[in-house]
Design brief:
The structure is a single chain. The protein is mainly β. It has helices spanning about 5, 60-70; strands at about 20-35, 40-50, 60, 85-95, 95-105. The protein has a domain at about 15-35 and about 40-115: OB fold (Dihydrolipoamide Acetyltransferase, E2P). Strands 3-2-1-4-5 form a 5-stranded antiparallel beta sheet.
Length: about 140
């Protein structure tokens, strides 16, 4: 049976990963793609990252491109053959928090796992009043 979701699954979307899930992929190559509006007028250019292990490309925003560049340099033509991890998290979009795909490279300075959820935060110790106005602030 043919489905719409299969016909339009050519790029990675947040719905492709469960919250907290990550996937390691090897970069196959990168190219700049000119997007167009419904009337066929050019709108914006985005970097498309393809992978050896999957037919889906990642439409790479500036945040993700900078994370990859921390590991492999600014020249995206030299990223091929290198591994990255994709993971799902949340980001601010207008007034809403929406799911998104983020990347982690070996030198991104982040843990290999997605950030912990609110539920993973430790409970405050009994009797701890929390921060007070007299607490030292690091800024």
């Amino acid at each position: 049976m043919a489905s719409i979701s299969e016909a339009f699954s050519s790029s990675w979307k947040a719905k492709d990963l469960e919250e907290g899930e990550s996937i390691r992929l090897t970069i196959k190559g990168c190219k700049v793609h000119q997007f167009k509006d419904d009337a066929g007028n050019p709108t914006e250019k985005k970097l498309m990252v393809s992978f050896n292990e999957d037919d889906k490309d990642l439409v790479c925003n500036l945040t993700n491109a900078k994370e990859i560049a921390k590991s492999y340099g600014d020249d995206y033509e030299k990223w091929a053959g290198n591994p990255i991890k994709l993971y799902r998290t949340m980001t601010q979009y207008g007034a809403d928090m929406v799911p998104c795909i983020r990347v982690i490279g070996p030198k991104s300075g982040k843990d290999a796992a997605p950030p912990p959820s609110f539920d993973d935060a430790p409970e405050p110790e009994a009797g701890d009043p929390g921060p007070t106005k007299d607490d030292d602030m690091p800024f």
